[in-house]
Design a protein that fits this description.
It is a single chain. The chain is of the alpha/beta class and 249 residues long. It contains eight helices and eight strands. It has helices spanning 27-43, 58-70, 85-94, 114-126, 149-157, 176-186, 202-206, 230-248, and strands at 16-20, 48-52, 77-80, 99-106, 131-136, 162-165, 191-193, 211-214. Strand 5 (131-136), helix 5 and strand 6 (162-165) form a beta-alpha-beta unit. Helix 1 (27-43) crosses helix 2 (58-70). The longest helix is centred in the C-terminal third of the chain and has 19 residues, at 230-248. The model has no long low-confidence stretch (mean pLDDT 95).
């Protein structure tokens, strides 16, 4: 499989990928909230927006993608179609998106099915221009692998363009110990911390990670159940931009 330059998609170091969760009780409410949250992310200078059917279903996800694509933004747009990975590839190809996120690329199926999974990624990645973020030992995913973490990470490097690391649940802080372990096994391969990021821990995590996916911390409740808060996004991005300035010195 041809490796894609994941970090090359971004104009700045340590990119922040902001989540749209598609919360709402009706199509009108879901889409109105998504448009508002996308507007906040654009105004406050996030580096990428990831569209995900965390609450909304597939139809709502596609409708929201149609809207964000119509804006012709200068930042990368990604998609994570939860539970049916092939549809994430389909949407990325249909709407010319830049990034696909898949919650697990190795170790979540029985050993007999790993060859099938390998072929799936070979076929899908051959037919997409989008870079792939792939989870390993990702939150809520079963661990059915009979291989070591090091072995599974080695396999993951051949299936995706960046590896995502989390702890065990949405909003739960990813331990520095786990991040360091992933970094040791990955070498200079891109590593994305994908859950539990806060203003208090992000700088420490970015010492070892190349990018961060942020969802809950941008909400007014600091939980996934909340609404994206402009003040929280502004505060977070101010911290990140100051950190980037220090990196440039």
């Amino acid at each position: 499989m041809i490796q894609k330059d994941f970090l090359g998609l971004f104009s700045k170091k340590k990119p922040i990928i902001a989540m749209i969760h598609l919360k709402g009780e009706s199509t009108e409410e879901i889409q109105t909230r998504a448009k508002k949250e996308i507007g906040i992310y654009i105004d406050e200078g996030v580096d990428c927006i990831m569209m995900e059917n965390y609450y909304g279903d597939y139809r709502e996800l596609e409708k929201a993608i149609q809207y964000i694509v119509s804006l012709d933004l200068e930042i990368p747009i990604g998609v994570n179609c939860l539970n049916v990975d092939s549809m994430g590839f389909y949407l990325a190809n249909k709407y010319d998106l830049d990034i696909i996120q898949v919650d697990s690329v190795v170790g979540h199926v029985k050993p007999r099915d790993e060859a099938t999974l390998q072929t799936f990624f070979e076929l899908e990645r051959e037919n997409t221009k989008a870079a792939l973020i792939g989870g390993v030992r990702f939150k809520y995913q079963p661990v059915l692998s009979e291989k070591s973490l090091e072995e599974d990470i080695h396999i993951a490097k051949g299936r995706c363009d960046a590896v995502a690391v989390t702890e065990n649940a949405t909003g739960q802080e990813t331990s520095i110990e786990k991040i360091k372990e992933f970094r040791d096994y990955l070498g200079d391969f891109p590593l994305v911390v994908a859950a539990g990021i806060t203003t208090e821990n992000v700088l420490k995590q970015l010492e070892y990670c190349d990018a961060a996916i942020v969802g809950s911390n941008f909400k007014d409740t600091r939980k996934d159940t909340g609404d994206v808060s402009r003040e929280n996004v502004k505060e977070f991005m101010k911290l990140i931009n100051e950190y980037r300035e220090e990196l440039e010195k």
